[in-house]
Design brief:
With 531 residues, the protein is mainly beta. The chain folds into two domains: 158 residues, no CATH class; 325 residues, YVTN repeat-like/Quinoprotein amine dehydrogenase (Methylamine Dehydrogenase, Chain H). It has one helix and 42 strands.
Length: 531
Amino acid sequence: MITSTLRFRLPALATFAGFVVAFSISFAASPSPSPTPLGAIDEKLFKGMQWRQIGPFRGGRALTIEGVPGEPDTYYFGAVAGGVWKTIDGGANWKPLFDKEPISSIGAIAIAPSDHNVIYAGTGEAAIRGNTTYGTGVFKSIDGGKTWMNVGLKDTRQIGALIVDPRNADVVLVAALGHAFGPNQERGIFRTTDGGKTWTKVLSKDENTGGIDVVFDPHNPNIVFASLWQARRQPWFFSSGGPGSGLYRSEDNGVTWKHLEGNGLPDGILGKIGIAVSGEDSNRVYAIIEAKEGGLYRSDDAGQHWTRVNDDGRFRQRAWYFSEVYADPKSADTVYLLNTGLFRSVDGGKTFNLLPARHGDHHGLWIDPQNSDRIANVSDGGAGISTDGGKTWTTQNNQPTAQFYHVAVDNAFPYHIYGAQQDNSNVGIASRTDWGAIGPADWFVAGGGECGFVVPDPRDWRIIYSNMVLPTLSIVSNGLRRSCFRRTIRTCSTLELNACSSRPITAIHGPKSAGISRAMINRSNSQAAVR
């Protein structure tokens, strides 16, 4: 059998944000005191190697973004596998701030309104896909992101949201989902009053339920809303919703909480809940709720009573992955919902229009509290900024934050690297060029797409085997692609076959034939479960 699988192991990276390759700058050898055992790797052979960035420079999945009021060109965003990034020129260029930290997954970012140099980053994304990676708690910077320190909650793993009291940069609330793949105790809503030196769990349910959202009333930070979410991810199974999920309100800055139920809120099993409070009218509260009778709910009396104003399926699909709502700071009737598209309503949530935001699958939004036309958005394609109310957006092709599912190399000289990018095409990219840089002209789509494998033929690098989520197996030969296998999987309400391949494509009997296999099952077990 001829296979593309490498027979040696390098030190593993938890996730990829763009491609990095290792190269040697020194081959100085030192005598070994004893022979290396057969099959073992002599680590000294790799001491002269360093990583270098080769791209591609197109954005990848991100969940959180924050701008700085009063500084129109300054923004921060967090990538789920690429750390924290900053721009000071309105998105024309982005600088990485988290490369020296031990973790790369960012779930939430908050800038202290009272001191813009103080930034908190919650690590570990809470959009718990099957390929999610974990975090190690909350990180804090007091110098605008130049340096960071871990300030605790290390076992929370996945953080959905965090907010900083506008009056005091040391008062922070964190919505920690906890372990995605199993139970744990460090989950729920946490509060610190000393900048992260100590934390108090102020709202929790059980070892299977964590915090997913927390927001202040923009006019009164003593009023806080939060939501808990019972969810569990397994390689073969996903469950969203259960008795632990719910919506809560605090009147003392998050110290004590009241469970909100009835009064118009949906009955039965609840899943993920996103919350927003209007900056124009504190009585106007929006909640996007995953439930059998789910949808967008609105309160006009600060959360005492609720009405479902929209049950459009466009905003309820894959509720566990989206369910994000944002209120305009200047208009109580203007509200945004994030799903496969970025949608805006100007009539209190009754009807919505699609905005031409970059890419698809939108997860995070920031609206300048002083200027509603200044908007920042993150999606599966990275970060984009608008200064005209969402009519036009900055490029996402300047952020090497792509998530790559798999990596392969060919036998060309110089060689190429191949990988499949999350929610995008796959890529074949040069390992080096003759002109000193690797740019868009040096990479190409190699025939497949998201979560598929892309494997060059070991005997002829011009032939590439690749597949995608349909799945489709394609062969690229001399730059021309032809599909040679296509199969559509239909699903039922209780058993869903996910088309993401879980095993590699391998060349079976030389370059003329290839095999493909796939296996992943999601099971839905509640009214609020993933669809």
